[in-house]
Amino acid sequence: MSDDAAKVTIRLWAGARAAAGVDVLEVDVTGPVSVSELAAQVVRRAPGGQADPGRLARVLEVCSVLLGDRPLGAADRDLAAVQPSTTVEFLPPFAGG
């Protein structure tokens, strides 16, 4: 892969950030990748995932996901294709108003 490989930026918010131990990760990609694969990358690469992968995976599983500025909604995470240079955000459920 070249030095200017395409990347997907992953932002983690609130409980996802706490479970991961980081707020942003960048993943090198060569083409579209699924949201499920990006979540797996977070679990493999984030300090919190290395310390307790099960906890981080459970947190990411219940998160709402934004692809750029679009909510993923009920789309299948295995089928949702994320294009290179996209920002993906994992937002845990939260209470309050």
Radius of gyration: 13 Å
Query: How would you state the average pLDDT, rounded?
Result: 91
Number of helices: 4
Distance between the termini: 45 Å
Q: What helical percentage do the residues reach?
A: 25-40%
Strand sequence of the main sheet, in spatial order? 2-1-7-4-5
Name the assembly state: single chain
User: H/E element string?
Assistant: EHEEHHHEEEE
**Beta-strand content bin:** 25-35%
> Can you tell me the overall shape?
globular
Structure, described:
The structure is a single chain. The chain has 97 residues and is of the alpha+beta class. Helices cover 34% and strands 29% of the residues. It is built from 4 helices and 7 strands; from the N terminus they run βαββαααββββ. It has helices at residues 14-20, 35-45, 47-51, 53-62; strands at residues 6-12, 24-29, 33-34, 64-67, 70-71, 81-82, 87-91. It has a 5-stranded mixed sheet with strand order 2-1-7-4-5. Strands 3-6 form a two-stranded antiparallel sheet. A hairpin with a 2-residue loop joins strand 4 (64-67) and strand 5. The N and C termini lie far apart (45 Å).
Which characteristics define this entry?
single chain; 7 strands; globular; 97 residues; 5-stranded mixed β-sheet; 4 helices; alpha+beta
